Structure formats: structure tokens, C-alpha cells
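User: Some background: our group keeps a shared notebook of sequences we're curious about, and every so often someone picks one and asks for a predicted structure to add to the entry. Today it's my turn. The entry only has the sequence so far, pasted here. Could you supply the structure so I can complete it?
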Amino acid sequence: MRTRVKICGITRIEDIHAAVEAGADAIGLVFYPPSPRYVTIEQAQLLAQHIPPYVSIVGLFVNANANEIVEVLQHVSLDVIQLHGDERPAECQQIAQQTQRRWYKAIQVKPEVDTLEIIQQYQQVGASAMLLDAWHPELKGGTGLQFDWSKFPQSNLPLILAGGLNPDNVAQAIEMTQAYAVDVSGGVESAKAIKDQKLIQQFMQGVQGGSAK
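Assistant: Of course. Here's the predicted structure to add to the notebook entry:
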């Protein structure tokens, strides 16, 4: 089975078209104001109109409460919620109950932390998947950094690899980790929040190559 792909941090209609035409499985919209890839509810509504059926719309939130996420859902039909902050398992469970949406949790991989134990904690409260990103002391994703892929855990829960992925290394990353999915943002950009159609196509080719081995 081919590794699934999410193109995250999309802010322009033409970038949605490029991602869909290249075969992306999911589009990520960032609802985190400090991010250079942040979109307002109004922008997200417009972008969502150009995302066809069978391509999932993922909303990324950082330390948002359930009411804030519900407000977005009243205007934007998100398929999945990505919780990318410091949300504890109980908080994620509460958000899921109020939003009635599938969700997954992003965690930053630190060398001294038992990643598998953390994964199990979120799995027990209903996570559909876990996203493993590179650790940064201040930033929440989109850092362009990568962690040691040889430390990528094995789990019966779908695991998503993020952090520092680009067209040149994604095939190797998939071979090493056997991740269920990969998540890319800056690695297919020509500038902050500006996706590059050619880089997206090259990234998808790399995914095909890594999945075939």
C-alpha cells in the first residue's frame, strides 16, 4: 500500500489544485494565528470549496479549546482534527466528544522520552493516529527539522512522519520508518506559505519510490 500524504499549511487555491492533481490524500489548514501558514475561517471556507471528495480536510490546532474548534467546524467541514500543541490525553478526549470528529495528536520526538508510551496514552483515549515531528524548544511544527528516523517506533496505531521532509529525502524516510503517512509543509514551498507545484510533484514521486521498496 502506498504511503499516504498530507500537504499541510496550504493558503492558496492554486496550491490545493497542485496538491490534488499530484495525488495528495489530505490537505492541511492551519488555524494557529502565530503560524505564517495561518488561515482565517473565511479563508478556510473558500479553500475548502476547492477540495474534492475523497481528499480529506485536516484542521491543525495548537492549544485551542473545544469551543474554538467547534466555531471553526460550524463554518468549515473538517474531516479530521490535528491537535498540535500541549494537549493532554484527557483534553483530546474532551475535544473529540464535543466536536464529534476523528482526531490525532502530534508529538515532538525527544531522545530521552519513551515515544511509544506516549503514543499508547493517546491511543487509549481514542486517537485515530499519531504524528511524530521533530522537537523544537519554541516552535510547533513547520520547523524544517528532522529527528533520528532510526528511532521511529512500531505501533498498531497509524503513525504519521513529519519534520524536515522534502523531495530528496522522503523515499529514504519511508523506507526507514515504514510510516503509514507523511506530512510535508515547508519541504514543498518556494517561500513561506507558498507551495511549489513542481516540488509537490517531485515529493509525490519520492513517496511512490519509497513505498515501492
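Suggested note for the entry: The CA atoms of residues 57 and 79 lie 5 Å apart. The longest helix spans residues 197-212.
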